[in-house]
Amino acid sequence: MAYRPSPARAPAVLLREARPLKVLFSQAQRIAHLQRLLDSQLQPAAREHCHVASWREGTLMLVVTDGHWATRLRYQQKRLQRQLQQLEAFANLTRILFKVQPVTGVTRSASHVIDISDKSAENIQATAEGISDPKLRAALERLASHAKGGKKPADE
Predict the structure, then answer these.
(1) Residue 99: what are its φ and ψ, rounded to 5°?
(2) pLDDT tens-digit readout, 45-55
(3) What is the pLDDT of residue 153?
(4) What average pLDDT does range 100-105 have in this prediction?
């Protein structure tokens, strides 16, 4: 008895027919709709920092990217709540909660690329040659090695 996998189906068909996926897809569509409504009431600068997390039993949970935006939105909470209550989807809105959740996946490099002109590198190298402190001299030579042309002035 050999196992035969079921034939492949298009993702759109799976989303319409498979019950767990269908429920998940409808929830995602509902959240996307609520997000569009929220965006229509937010200031343009705040839109990228505020996202709908959940909407149930009169409570709207919003995820905000940092404390700064959470504070700004809390100051505007009553106005935002009044405006949202005027929309049919948020008619029974009783409170808005803000949860700060920093964006993940964005890594900041600890160091940055140093790119200096060849002329600057030559000047730094000339300065390094006149320095008697070996650590300072080595640091200046390393700095001079970052010339845009890619060649080290010390190698010439």
Answers:
(1) -125, 125
(2) 999 999 999 99
(3) 45
(4) 84
Could you identify the residue written with the tokens 């000047």? 123
Residues 93 and 118 occupy one common structural domain: no
Among 44, 46, 95, 36, smallest CA distance to 69 is for 46
Q: Which residue type occupies 144? A: A
Same domain (yes/no): 94, 67:
yes
pLDDT in tens, 31-43: 999 999 999 999 9
Residues 96 and 118 occupy one common structural domain: no
Question: What six digits make up the tokens of 11?
Answer: 């993702």
Supply the CATH number for residue 20's domain. Answer: 3.30.300.180
* CA-only gyration radius of the chain, Å: 29
Whether this prediction's pTM lies above 0.70 is answered by no
Domain count, the chain: 2
Shared domain for 18 and 43, answered yes or no, is yes
Closest CA to 60 of 25, 42, 84, 88: 84
In a shared domain, residues 90 and 124: no
Together in a domain, 31 and 88: yes
Chain CA centroid to CA 32, Å = 18
For position 112, what pLDDT does the model report?
62
What 3-state DSSP class applies to 129?
helix
